[in-house]
Amino acid sequence: GQNIDQPTEMTATEGAIVQINCTYQTSGFNGLFWYQQHAGEAPTFLSYNVLDGLEEKGRFSSFLSRSKGYSYLLLKELQMKDSASYLCAVTDSNYQLIWGAGTKLIIKP
Amino acid sequence: IAGITQAPTSQILAAGRRMTLRCTQDMRHNAMYWYRQDLGLGLRLIHYSNTAGTTGKGEVPDGYSVSRANTDDFPLTLASAVPSQTSVYFCASSDTAGGGGNTIYFGEGSWLTVV
Question: Which residue of A has its CA nearest to B104?
Answer without folding.
Answer: A45
